[in-house]
Amino acid sequence: MMEAMIVFRIGDEHIGVDISQVREVTEAQTPVPVPRSPAFVIGLVNIKGEVIPVVSLRKRLGVGGEESGDCLLIVEDKGRLAGIEVDELFGTEKVIDARINRRAELLSTRKEKDFFHGVYETEGKPILILNLGKILSKEDK
Asked: What are 27-54's pLDDT values in tens digits?
């Protein structure tokens, strides 16, 4: 049960990730490219002595455009750490479970529907709730 999420923007999409999975927010660095890594892995960064892979949600989710943010979310799922570059950080949103719509047809137009737990309904733009485990897995499905 998610209590709150960190909300950010990638392209035109508003995306949220469970706050308990976010270890820190830091300034984006230039990642060191890794040969033969998956296309969505931009490279590695060193955060406080830990080497962390940086994942492009743009590439992972098939959102066009260039990485443009200067903010890096350090996230953790089952002991795996990763950095996610975001275009813009909006802050936190308290989660009311009743507002989470888990109906798959809302996401069925997206080939990436596995990458989301559902849609969080807000007065403004709906927030896609990231399934971090799927995003960080090496398999594509």
From this structure: 988 999 999 998 899 999 999 999 999 9
Contact 68, 10 (CB under 8 A): no
Could you please state the CATH topology (level 3) that the domain comprising 4-136 is classified under.
Answer: OB fold (Dihydrolipoamide Acetyltransferase, E2P) (2.40.50)
- What gap in Å lies between CA 47 and CA 108, rounded to an integer? 36
Nearest to 83 by CA among 40, 39, 131, 126: 40
Task: Give pTM, 2 decimals.
Answer: 0.88
Q: pLDDT per residue over 59-71, tens digit each?
A: 888 777 776 778 9
In angstroms, the Cα distances linking 78 to 22, 68, 85, 118 are: 12, 28, 20, 20
Cα–Cα distance between 21 and 74 in angstroms, integer? 9
Q: What is the 3-state secondary structure (H, E, C) of 31-88?
A: CECCCCCCCCEEEEEEECCEEEEEECHHHHHCCCCCCCCCEEEEEEECCEEEEEEECE
Listed by start position, the domains of the chain span 4-136
